[in-house]
Design goal:
By secondary structure, the chain is α+β, with helices and mostly antiparallel strands. The protein has one domain: Bira Bifunctional Protein, Domain 2 (BirA Bifunctional Protein, domain 2, 2-Layer Sandwich), CATH 3.30.930.10. It contains five helices and ten strands.
């Protein structure tokens, strides 16, 4: 459990060090995969509309929920306890991978992870992330993705709802959507799941896809 702004500083330090290596033409000897949970926080990406925050500033201040504007893509997102947040800081050029392929790889790693709990995760056209119940009136998002990339070095990443308190999404229009729901592994399987096991499964799936 790490507060969002501390982890943002850590991310930026690692990201900027790798970008500096690329600029200098030096080899990159280390990449990073940061897996954390955050206390309650609302983040706004580059294209976020402040109107997608439904709670008042006074309410958020009273509840101790900060809002942070950041450089990832996407709109408004909530992070909180029980949500697995993953920040890969890696070099896509080493894998001959573009941004679209990278996002698809993150989605696929989540889809494969969910399959271990017999959950059918899917992609939805024009809506980055992983969804449940695609094409139905109960279509709902289980994983949000928003990244930044410079010189093929990545930062930011994804947020997978594991045991998340889904009521907190009522503070926002998640990712800007007003007509779609959110869900979690816990909700889909009907009980709390082991976060350590989710982390283990996800890391294994992602590393397999990135090799």
């Amino acid at each position: 459990m790490v507060d969002y702004e501390s982890m943002l500083i850590r991310q930026r330090d690692l990201f900027e060090a790798l970008v500096a290596c690329k600029r200098a033409g030096k080899p990159i000897s280390e990449e990073y995969l940061l897996l954390v949970e955050h206390p309650d926080v609302i983040t706004l990406g580059r294209h976020a509309r402040h109107g997608n925050i439904l709670a008042s500033s006074a309410f958020l201040q009273h509840e101790g929920i900060p809002t942070v504007e950041i450089e990832r893509g996407g709109d408004v997102t909530y992070h909180g306890p029980g949500q697995l947040v993953v920040y890969p800081i890696i070099d896509l050029s080493r894998r001959s991978m573009g941004v679209k392929d990278y996002v698809a790889t993150l989605e696929e790693a989540v889809i494969r992870t969910l399959a271990h709990w017999n959950i059918n995760g899917e992609r939805v056209d024009d809506a980055t992330g992983v969804w449940i119940g695609k094409g139905t009136t109960a279509e709902r998002k289980i994983c949000a993705i928003g990244i930044r990339c410079s010189r093929y070095i990545t930062m930011h990443g994804l947020a997978l709802n594991v045991n998340t308190d889904l009521s907190k999404f009522g503070l926002i229009n998640p990712c800007g959507f007003v007509d779609k729901g959110v869900t979690s592994i816990k909700k889909e399987v009907g009980g709390e799941v082991d976060m350590a096991e989710v982390k283990k499964r996800f890391v294994a799936e992602l590393l397999t896809l990135l090799r």
